[in-house]
Amino acid sequence: MANYTRLEGIPMYVWIREDLRREIRDGIYKRGEKLPSEQELAIKYRVSRMTVRQSIAELIDEGLLFRRHGVGTFVAIPHLERDHTRLTNFFDAEGGEGSATRASLLAMKVLPAGQKIARALDIAKGDSVIEVKTLRYADDVPITVHDAYIPHKLFSNLQKEHLETQNLWSFFERNGFRVKRAIQKIEARQATKDIANMMKIKEGSPILYKERTVYSENGTPVEFTYCYNRGDIYSLTVALER
Amino acid sequence: MANYTRLEGIPMYVWIREDLRREIRDGIYKRGEKLPSEQELAIKYRVSRMTVRQSIAELIDEGLLFRRHGVGTFVAIPHLERDHTRLTNFFDAEGGEGSATRASLLAMKVLPAGQKIARALDIAKGDSVIEVKTLRYADDVPITVHDAYIPHKLFSNLQKEHLETQNLWSFFERNGFRVKRAIQKIEARQATKDIANMMKIKEGSPILYKERTVYSENGTPVEFTYCYNRGDIYSLTVALER
DNA sequence: GAGTGGTCTAGACCACCCG
DNA sequence: GGGTGGTCTAGACCACTCG
Question: Per-residue pLDDT tens for B113-141?
C-alpha cells in the first residue's frame, strides 16, 4: 500500500498530531484523561504504531501529553502561556505583534570588537562587527534601547535598507543562518544618565537589563545584544524546563 | 537475532547516543563536521536505521547535532552554557551547588489563597495554601527573599522538618508530582522598605523580581513563588529556543 | 494475565541536495 | 545519478502497572 506523503504532501504523523491537538483543544479528550492506546490510534488512523508514536512524541515534547509506562498516554493540563512566552521572547526584539511597536535606528556602524563582544561572538578581539543601535517604542512610548553586534565577516552585506524592510533575523536566514536559540543574562539595574535621557525617564529608575547571544541552528553566534528595558513597564516571561 | 535490551539493560539507542556524545566530546567528530550517514551508523552499531535515528533525535533536541535534508548530519558548535543555565535556573531556588548557599526559614503557615495565588495554582479563591517564606544567602550575604505558596490540598503533610532535610521539589516528587517546568515573569523593581530591611540594603536599590509558577509533569501547578533578588549581585541566565 | 508503553527490525519509497 | 535524510510498514519481544 502506497501510504507515503499522502493528503497533499502532508505526512501522516503531522496530520495525526494536529488531529489530536484539535481534539484536545475541543475537549474531546479532557485534562488528565487517557488517550486511546497507541494500538487503537494506529488502527483508527490506519498507520503503524511507530507513526502514532512519532505524532505523540512531539505533543509530549510540547507538554500537551505525557506518558506512563504500562498505563497509558494522558492529556496534561495545558498552561497556555508557554508557547506564547517562547515566541514573545524570541521575537520581541525584532518586530513584535500584539501592541503597536516600532523601532528607530539610532546608529549603524562597523567597529572592532572588544574583548567581551568578541568572546560572545566567538571571533578574535579586534575583528570587525556591525553595531545596530535602536530605540524601540510600544504605543509611541520608548521602552527599550537595543545595542546589537553582528560579526562583519558573516554579514558584510548588511545595509540600513535591510533593517527597514525586514527584521534582523529574516536577514540572517536569507544569508543561511537559521536562528535557533539564544542565551540571555538578565539583571536589574538603575538607568544611567544616557539611557535615562533616551527613554525620557529619571536617572536611577529601574531598568531590566539583558545581555543576549543569539545562535543559529549550527551553533554559530550571529548576534550579541545589550538591551535596556524600562522597568516600570517592561516585564519578561520565560519558560524553564526539566 | 535477540537484540532487545542488550548490555545490562541499556537500550541500544541510549548506548549509541552516549557513544556519539563521547566521540564528539573527544573531538573524533569536530564542530561543523559531518557525521557518518544514518545507514553507515546502522551498520557500525549493527542496528536498524530507525534506531540510529532515535539516538540522533535526542542529540538534535539538545542542540549537539543538526540535520540537513539531503546533505547529512552535522556537529553543532557547542555552547556549554545551555545545559548549565537550565539546571542552574531550575534548581537554584532549592539548594544550589557551586557557591556556599543556605536558606533560613522565615515563616511557614497555612492561609487562604487570594485571587492571584488561586489563579496561578488553579484552585478556588480562599482555598488553603501553605506559605513558605525563606531568606537565602550566598556566602552568608542575604541575596534573595523567597515567598512560596503551595496548595494545601495536595501537600497537607508538609512539615517544617521536610524543609530542613530536603528541598521542596524532592518533597513534591515523593508525593507523586514530578516537577517538569516553570514559568517565570521577571521585572526590575526597587526595594521596598520591608525587602530592604531583610536583605540589609538601601530602600530603592534595584531588585530583580520574579513571579514563578512551577508545574509537575501532568501540568498541575504545584508552587507559586514571589522572589526578590538583590540586583547588584544576582543575575539570571535563561536559554530560549526556536 | 491483560493491557499499556518501550525498544527494535529489515526493509520500502519519497524529497532534497549536490556535482 | 547517487547519496542523504524524511516518512512509513507490519510485525516482534520486553518492561511496567494494575486488578
Answer: 998 899 999 999 899 999 999 998 887 88
Q: Under a CB-based contact definition with an 8 Å cutoff, are residues B209 and B227 in contact?
A: yes
Domain boundary among A75, A104, A123: A75
For strand C, which nucleotides have at least one atom less than 7 Å from a protein CB? 3-18
Contact B31, A219 (CB under 8 A): yes
Angle between helices B49-62 and B12-25 (to 10 degrees): 50
Per-residue pLDDT of chain A (242 residues; tens, 9 = 90+): 334 445 567 899 999 999 999 999 898 998 889 999 999 999 999 999 999 999 999 999 888 899 988 999 999 876 544 444 554 444 444 444 445 678 889 999 999 998 889 999 999 989 999 999 999 888 788 999 999 999 999 998 888 887 776 678 878 877 888 888 888 889 999 999 999 999 999 999 999 999 999 888 888 899 999 999 999 888 888 877 76
CA B26 remoteness from chain centre: 27
CB contact under 8 A, B237 and A188: no
Residue corresponding to grid cell 556566602: B139
Task: Based on the fold, state whether residues B127 and B62 are members of the same structural domain.
Answer: no
A127 within domain boundaries: yes
Task: Name the domain count of chain A.
Answer: 2
Q: Does B109 touch chain A (CB under 8 A)?
A: no
Query: Chain B partners of A93 at a C-beta cutoff of 8 Å?
Result: none
Average pLDDT, chain B: 84
Residue A242 belongs to some domain of the structure: no
* CATH number of the structural domain spanning residue B41: 1.10.10.10
Which one of A31, A71, A79 would you mutate to disrupt binding with B, by most B Cβ within 10 Å of its Cβ?
A: A79
Output residues with Cβ under 7 Å from nucleic strand C. A 2, 4-5, 9, 35, 37-40, 49-50, 53, 67-73; B 1, 3-6, 11-14, 46-51, 54, 68-71
B160 plus B217 within the same structural domain: yes
Domain that holds residue B129: 80-237
Q: Does B11 touch chain A (CB under 8 A)?
A: no
* Same domain flag for A147 and A36: no
The cell numbers describing B204, all together, are 530603592
Residue B242 lies in a domain: no
Quote the cell numbers at residue A222: 550571529
Last residue of a domain, one of A21, A50, A75: A75
Q: What is the CATH number of the domain that holds A148?
A: 3.40.1410.10
Distance, angstroms, CA A47 to C1' D11? Answer: 13
Taking the Cβ of residue A220 and every Cβ of chain B, the question of whether any pair is shorter than 8 Å is answered with: yes
Mention every residue, 6+ apart, whose C-beta is less than 8 A from residue B92.
none
Cβ atoms of B76 and A219 within 8 Å: the answer is yes
All 3 cell numbers of residue A30? 479532557
The pLDDT value recorded for residue A8 is 62
Q: By the CB < 8 Å criterion, does A108 face chain B?
A: no
- The H or E element that residue B237 is part of is strand B236-241
Residue at B181 is within a domain: yes
